[in-house]
Amino acid sequence: MKEVVVNLPHERHYPIYIGPGLLAESERLRRHVTGTKVFVITNDVVAPLYLDQLLESLRGLDVYSKILADGESHKTLDTAATIFDALIAVPCDRETTVISLGGGVTGDIAGFAAACYQRGIPYIQIPTTLLAQVDSAVGGKTAVNHPYGKNMIGVFHQPVCVISDTDTLSTLDDRQLRAGLAETIKYGLIRDPEFANWLEANVDALLTRDSAALSYAVERSCQIKAAIVSEDECERGVRAILNFGHTFGHAIETGQGYGAWLHGEAVAAGMVIAARVSNLMGWLSSADYLRTENLLQRVGLPIRAPVELTAARLIELMAVDKKVSRGTLRLILLKTVGDARIVSDYPADVIKTAIEQLRDTESISAR
């Protein structure tokens, strides 16, 4: 078992536990439960696999559960309202601990509900997908979607701990695994070139679910994210680099309809666009641009936005992105692999040019 600590201002901190068999370690879980009442939020895919095991670890406590429909299309205010109804019906008080058991969608909406209910109650993240273990379960971002934009309604609310049982990755389908690897690749590209090198050397091991490789990928991703969140909890500065590829990716998700593309798939295509913009601005070398594209392609991730989403439509969708400040969309771009920057001053047509060039694969590969 590995432990990564997220340090926050005002002497706050919480642990991320990473390793096999953690769902069965009742003592570790229970030490982070406030009071005697627990409310578990999970989904209809994860519940048949792991809910009974979690309930066994919570035996002796007053435990309630809510099973949600799975999928990004259900991450809405309406779904959150059903959670509030259930919390009130129990009734749950401020000493109740919410536990999220599932992937990124479940974690986001459970955290949002915990943040809002009675102005905030404690919650524990137990992520069961690779994407959630390396990204969404860490850092305290909680949100629901709006038809006009992804994660537009949310709040920062840090968990009391994150328990990443890597055994749960054995039941993850291949598409979800690849989507999670998109986020691990992001960390290497924005902050750690050595990790990017390691990922390139270990693609096959990760895709065949080598336990040691997956555990290291989760651990290193969490270390990088924890360090960035510790610097900037509420995304007033450097934390924004974690959104590399996300501005474009969120536009793809919104434009296609939530759930048509997995989050990691959309982010992969978004990272290619961001890397191409970086290259057009004279920052990221052509060799490193192609290296980025190749790594994502080797993992089996999409490297082009959907053809039906024109450059004009993507730019329109990005206009409501959370990173718009004073009417200007801030982009996360790469100087080099491992060096991401937040950029507001860029040529007006560079985004359109990048998207349109990427529709012509031959012209890109010939550069």
Keywords:
globular; alpha/beta; seven-stranded mixed sheet; 20% strand; Rossmann fold; 45% helix; 367 residues; Dehydroquinate synthase-like, alpha domain; 2 domains; 15 helices; 13 strands
What do you see in this structure?
With 367 residues, this protein is of the alpha/beta class. The chain has 2 domains: 2-171, Rossmann fold (3-Layer(aba) Sandwich), CATH 3.40.50.1970; 183-365, Dehydroquinate synthase-like, alpha domain (Up-down Bundle), CATH 1.20.1090.10. Helices cover 45% and strands 20% of the residues. The protein has a 7-stranded mixed beta sheet, with helices on both faces. The protein has a two-stranded antiparallel ribbon with strand order 7-8. Strands 10-11 form a two-stranded antiparallel sheet. α4 (104-116) links the parallel β5 (97-102) and β6 (123-127).
